Amino acid sequence: MSAFFVYIFRCVNRVSLCDAGTRNKKTYRSYFINNDINGGFSSYYIVGVKKMPRVKYRDADVDLMARMMRAEAEGEGKQGMLYVGNVIVNRAVADCLDFKDVRTIEDVLFQIQGGNYSFEAVQKGDLFYQRARSTEKRLAKQNIDNWRQHPAKYSLWYFNPYAACPPTWYNQPFTGQFKNHCFYEPAAGTCASVYNG
Length: 197
Description:
The chain is an alpha+beta fold. The protein has two domains: 48 residues; 137 residues, Arc Repressor Mutant, subunit A (Orthogonal Bundle). 27% of the residues lie in helices and 25% in strands. The strands form four sheets. It has a four-stranded antiparallel beta sheet with strand order 8-11-10-9, covered by helices on one side. The N terminus is likely disordered.
């Protein structure tokens, strides 16, 4: 199920600009809501509909995510970076397995598991510590705003095996490969929250 923001404004008299169904040089549909007891009317106009992002974020989160996407998958092009972005957002949304205590993009990117950062680029990557470029920022925002696609659509893990992708990784099923990265989603029944949004 997806959520949406609906921006509306209300008009209470027939002579207002709202009654014409225009605002800021745009035309919108009006919806008659009710007649009040004094014979007046109320009409609401939808100004715009915007799909809610899958995870709360700040501009700094978009920047961090863009840097990680580039550091992890620049050689795999925009599509490869989008798949890495899927995994980042999925981890922030997932309330299961290794990701019960991560709720933000920053939490995901700086999560420590087994004494190491979950993303190698945090401790080893020069690209991660370079300024985010506008292209990667747009891609990161696209992921946050709900872009998801196979093989990373529900994936929580990916890695480059430098060989053929194994059918499972830590008992999690293989969902597909894009260039050098193999993607894995949670085993059935272990993480319903990753399928939300």
